[in-house]
Write a structure and sequence with these properties.
With 209 residues, this protein is of the alpha+beta class. Helix content is 21%, strand content 27%. It has 4 helices and 10 strands. The strands form 2 sheets. A 5-stranded antiparallel sheet has the order 1-2-9-4-7, with no helix packed on it. Strands 6-5-8-3-10 form a 5-stranded antiparallel sheet. It is globular.
Length: 209
């Protein structure tokens, strides 16, 4: 009986090891899917797939929001494909802001490296959670909830963010409303904003209609 148990256990152990796939480096030459990119042939995988050096330099903050997000998602860092993680660099110039936005595909963890950042999110019950963060502070933003980051200091700010997804997605509320051709009358009806203000915002963000 003991010998039979050992044989069965050994078989299960071998089978479990055989079913484990260490990684699924993204094959960026193929199309993305809801479950991620297809796996690159393991014979073509190299250490370069697991290393990314793109977060060492500051992003360009000379834009309307005075902010830059440098991502290390699957498209930039194929090694994170299928692992449920990714990261990005956030640079905020003086007065910089990442407007209200959501990541439908993952939760976010922000770590302040330099400067002062006011950050917060709004729950589905419309409860607001926000706080001024300083160097070394960490804040988490639950998946899918509206959140923001503002440089509330007198100098530039730097943070690194991590996500619980290799492709967390992004939708910025202001751009969703005012940077496309959604008719002004629909925006007015659904936001209660003045038509003149909507047209002004569309003009600033490049929208029409």
């Amino acid at each position: 009986m003991l010998i039979q148990s050992v044989i069965v256990f050994s078989f299960l152990l071998v089978a479990s090891y055989a079913s484990v796939q260490d990684f699924c480096v993204a094959d960026l030459s193929l199309s993305d899917t809801p479950s991620g990119f297809p796996c690159k042939d393991p014979k073509k995988v190299s250490v370069s797939d697991f290393v990314y050096s793109g977060l060492g330099a500051a992003g360009n903050t000379t834009n309307i929001i005075k902010a830059a997000v440098t991502p290390a998602f699957t498209a930039q860092f194929p090694g994170v494909n299928g692992l449920g993680i990714s990261t990005a660099r956030l640079d905020l110039a003086v007065g910089g802001v990442v407007p209200m936005h959501t990541h439908p595909g993952g939760s976010e963890l922000l770590v302040v490296i330099q400067g002062t950042i006011c950050a917060g999110f709004i729950s589905s019950a419309n409860t607001v959670y926000f706080k001024t963060l300083y160097k070394g502070d960490i804040m988490v933003f639950p998946q899918g909830l509206l959140h923001f980051q503002i440089n509330s200091g007198k100098g530039s700010a730097l943070a690194f963010v991590s996500f619980s997804s290799p492709s967390p997605g992004l939708q910025i509320t202001d751009f969703a409303l005012f940077a496309n051709d959604l008719p002004t009358e629909i925006v007015a009806a659904t936001t209660f904003l003045d038509v003149a203000q909507i047209k002004k915002l569309k003009g600033v963000l490049g929208g029409s209609g």
